[in-house]
Fold these 3 entries.
Entry 1:
Amino acid sequence: MEKTVQEKVRSFMEEYHMAEKGDCILAAVSGGADSLCMLMVLLALRQERGYGLCAAHVEHGIRGEESQRDAAFVEGYCREHGIPVRVYRCQAAEYAKEQRMTLEEGARQLRYGFLRQAAAEFGANKIAVAHNRNDCAETMLFHLARGSGLRGLQGILPVRGEVIRPLLCVERREIESFLQEKGQAYCHDRTNEELKYARNKIRRLIFPVLEEVNSQAVAHMGQAACAVSKALELVDALVQEAEENYVKRQGQGIFISQEVLSEKDLLCASLLHKSLSEAAGSSRDITDAHVRQAFQLFGKQVGRKLCFPYGLEAERTYGGIIIMKKKQVAFQEEWVLPPEGMLEIPALGYRICTKIMGNLHEIGEIPKKMYTKWLDYDKIKGIMRLRTRRPKDFFVISADGKRKKLKNYLIDEKVPRQQRDSVLLLVDEEHVLWALGWRISEDVKVTEHTKRILEIQVQREIP
């Protein structure tokens, strides 16, 4: 006899040790089918399993009255069932624009920030989010299409830190059937139907075809994700063992012996990825392409260097390669940037190209790239220079001329203290025009009134 949704979730939570007696779970509840199903099951299991339960809802300010109705629905449901709840409101679209993110990325960052805030307020040590088996399969395909390595094929992990996903063992159709059997209404997010989002295309266009090939496609992909995850556990254990043989910490750097090339390619690549991530302090922007470049460095002549994200530099040395943070720029150093031409800064691995162009009507849309920017050339005062920060540096952050100290901006952006002095700034005679990789000053943004556009392209690696 097939298990019920509640029985599946109970077994799944036990298998992955998601919550123990005495824990407190904060449920992230949007009001949609998935999150409401999760809340109902957790509520049913609360007394049996001996954990506390509370909830949080984030209203992103995207869908107007519909979004407000969802928030009211969640509040009402929780109040009716005696579940403590917090509702947070924000403007995700504005935040994403300010942070140079997609709307999805911005909303996600805000959402998890509020969830951790709510967990702290309630004293919850677990945060439950309602990803299901379909979401895991969608994520696998999404990562695969973007050129992911093996880790991307894990899909969504059941447990990551304090975040747990109790519904990863059930499919969306099971969730909808569960709610229908209970006679429970739920909210509908119309943005889930819009095909401009990549995940919606996968969900609405690709999965129906896959399920025509095999009705159990989603379940089989979930099994594959689990198998990949277990394989990676083995790889990680082997990498830890290999570190003892091939890796040495040398001052501020990580030395990797060329003897690692005697190992299988997968183990070697995994060790390089781990070393790059450790040196960087984050794995977020360390891709398979960077690992391949580091791998190829073993075949180069001694002294050859490569630049990587987070200010990393890898150098071919006798007996292997060494990975370290690039030497920080001396505080007094600066470089004049011509309005048309090219500037190379070998010490930082930068090549910067500039040119003056016409207006928006002549050349089209403003590029949305982190290292390509358009500025209103006629609003730049005097000579442009590239340098690191100084005590009185500031941005203009609004059309009315409001200012913000660069120091405060870097703190708000959570730039690590040790990295702030190495952020490269484009300045004119008055203030900061652009913190490379971050924002530009509001007063030099290109508008429909701009007569001449200055294009700046930054290439982060000099061959």
Entry 2:
Amino acid sequence: MEFEKLKEFINFMNENSLCELEIEEEGKKIRLKKFSENQPVIVSHAAQPVKEEKPAKREGSIEIKSPMVGTFYRAPSPGAKPYVEIGDVIKSGDVVCIIEAMKLMNEIKAEIGGKVTEVLVENGQPVEFGQTLFVLEPA
């Protein structure tokens, strides 16, 4: 995306008092989010074409899905150890991640125990309702 076009989007946000703007164009997706009164910041930018693929369901596996739309965080704070890693055995009620939604930090807890076999979302990445975050192997 050209820098001039990006500046146009920022000006559009300022002129219309928007704090967030998401645009998808020519297979590219950009999301701008304003953290202060006059300073929009690029939150995420997908350079590859946007894909609507779901991971293949694994036989006998358990999926932990996002209960809301927001931003995914693996740890309680930047630089802190992630709540879970691949290979960890978790039990029902264990916190597995945080999803930030509308400036609120929501702890996501496992509803069932198992061994973490996959982490499907990168730290700081936006997630959708029902998106698979983790895959567990039954314990």
Entry 3:
Amino acid sequence: MGTTSIIIVGVGGQGTLLASKLLGNVLLSQGHDVKVSEVHGMSQRGGSVVTYVRYGEKVYSPIVTEGEADLILAFERLEAARWLSYLKKDGKLIVNDQRITPMPVITGAMEYPENILEKLKEKGIQITALDALSLAEQAGTAKAVNVVLMGVLSASMPFPEEIWQAALEKCVPAKFLDMNKKAFALGRAAVIK
């Protein structure tokens, strides 16, 4: 088995770090060698955040280079477009169809690109796009977007659901566990018909 590369991208405060912790926990529990590298950037100010997760029998580096990602999990539309060059030709893209306006757009220095998801689809990319924010709110909190997206991701990976549930139990504080389990289930159900 070769090495699989996943990039998780979002904006500071969206919970990308918990998402990478959950994913890492699942992968380790299945006996994979796992390397994770987190780049925070201006995460405290709503800036871009990226986490590289690589796993396989033996992984030598956590860094994912352009054209190498098997999957990109984007917590926001613009972040999906920003990191697209890292996706393999036959890679998958999972996108939260949410717009978070970056500071250059707020200040008027730039414009937020229109029709991002449509343009990605026109390029023939395997894309799963959904409104993870509304599913998170349905679960009880907007902060659970990350766990909704983990539910979506779980449907494209070869690990049983109970492994993901065990990871949630290890990584999420008990007082938030039920809400996060509901968020995970809603995300998974959104793509498993």
